Amino acid sequence: MTRPSRTPAEAGRESTARALVLGYLNRAAALHGQGYADRAALDTAMRLGCGLPEGPFEMIGRLGADAVHRSLTELWVATGDEAYAPAPWFREPGRPAPETPSPTTGPGNAEAAPVRRLGILGSGTMARGIAEAAARNGVATVLVARSTDSAERARTGVGQSLERSVRRGRTTASAAAEAVALLDFTVARGALGDRDLVVEAVAEDEQVKREAFAMLGAVCAPGTVLATTTSSLSVTAGTASAGRPGEVLGLHFFNPAPVMKLVELIRTPTTTTASTATARAFCAALGKVVVDCGDRAGFIVNFLLFPYLARAVRLLESCADGPAERYGEAARIDEAVVAGSGFPMGPFALLDTIGLDVSVAILDRLHREFADSDFEPPALLRRMLDDGCLGRKNGRGFRVL
Questions:
Q1: Residue 143 in contact with residue 183, Cβ under 8 Å?
Q2: Active site (annotated) includes residue 264
Q3: Residues contacting residue 322 through CB under 8 Å, at least 6 positions apart
Q4: Which pTM value belongs to this model?
């Protein structure tokens, strides 16, 4: 059967979708070329962190590196946009095939200390998710909240999540009861004093984190590994107030923590190998896959994901006016991206899922760090946020009206 010819509008959307994906692949190649992460780490992070069917280098391998290079060059010449200037990796002679081993936790490390007692500072979604994941895997966990009300809300939230898991057949009633028995919710900071590992999961604000780590440095026993869950802030800056440069690191869990497999492990220049080994072994015990990252804003996933999302918004702004027209065009661009790349959802559905407020905050942090225009929050995104559009969480966004 002859395929129906595409309309100019359909062809334009396909070109837009192709350009978005090519820009993402080029940034991944550039990040690898800078020595920040190997290809296996990049592939694993983007597959597990974003739910993609394949990582950027797996995708480049399927499409052909030379073909991707040619397509980028054509886009660069046609648009003059430096985002499409092929990364040096594409010009390397005899490019080796992508590494086959995934950067999982791998075999045990002799320096890893067992984590039998976990402390969590915070009571929000991420804190509750990590607490649930730990308790479900047999780790005695205490969650320290700011107030009695916050502690009780966290207790209720974890209990409800476990009940849903039982209803959906993901765990048994007896296993859920065993997890509940391993959980304690309190406001007493002293409860963190005997923990093997403490995970800070407070607000994504550097000053708040500094205050939290000053307290942890005073309360926790010597040798306790102290981890921050930041998604884009400097681990070194946020944890320095603890006064324990060898015992601090980052553990960026992905939401929902009981379900998502990826953890980006951020080691600072002073983190000891023993602290790193302990944190890695802890994540392995929770069934997580660890990808090692350097201490710079965005790590792997956010560094690659958010320029792609911001570019999609700028392209939408250039071709659609008004909420109704934007809604229809965003849906059609999403459909073109999914059809052309196999991604589980397009950029606008993903922005609504992440939250427009969260997206602007992350882009602001990345833009401050790198001064790269690709990280600057698009004007349309800011206007929508100013108008109260948060995405799925309040039913107002690119794909929800």
A1: yes
A2: yes
A3: none
A4: 0.91
